[in-house]
UniProtKB/TrEMBL annotation:
Alphabetized PANTHER family for the sequence: ARSENATE REDUCTASE, PROTEIN YFFB
Entry's family note: Belongs to the ArsC family.
CDD domains: ArsC_Yffb
Database matches in NCBIfam families: arsC_related, PRK10853.1
InterPro entries referenced in this protein's UniProt entry, alphabetically: Arsenate_reductase-like, Thioredoxin-like_sf, Tscrpt_reg_Spx/MgsR
Ranges annotated as spanning the membrane: none
Protein name: Spx/MgsR family transcriptional regulator
Organism this protein belongs to: Sulfuritortus calidifontis
Coiled coil segments of this chain: none
Length: 115
């Protein structure tokens, strides 16, 4: 199982703490140190759509130039922005047995890991 994100993100910290409290082992993939895996993003975009992955409410998105924001209109342009600005990806992303969860809520994690 992998958890993708940025270590100083508050939501990622909550997810990691929840996993550790429940003794669920995971491998952490740090976007800042290890980069953004395009294959994983492409798979998720195919399943959920690119809109589900782009965090348009976060500070990174707000700081992007307007020209960049207006160019994000499809999967290809979204992928380019996410690879260039990993902080614009909603997080954390959990990958387990070819199933994915984006974001963190205790109820969602409890249901997902009960399986």
């Amino acid at each position: 199982m992998k958890l993708y994100g940025i270590p100083n993100c508050t939501t990622v910290k909550k997810a990691r703490a929840w996993l550790e409290e429940h003794d669920i082992p995971y491998e952490f993939h740090d976007y800042k140190k290890q980069g953004v895996p395009a294959d994983m993003l492409l798979k998720l975009m195919g399943r959920l759509g690119w809109e589900a992955l782009v965090n348009r409410n976060g500070p990174t998105w707000r700081k992007l130039p307007d020209a960049t924001k207006t160019q994000v209109k499809d999967a290809k342009s979204a992928l380019a922005v996410m690879q260039e600005n990993s902080s614009v990806i909603k997080r954390p992303i959990v990958e387990r047995d070819d199933q994915y969860r984006i974001g963190f809520s205790e109820a969602d994690y409890a249901a997902f890991f009960k399986k």
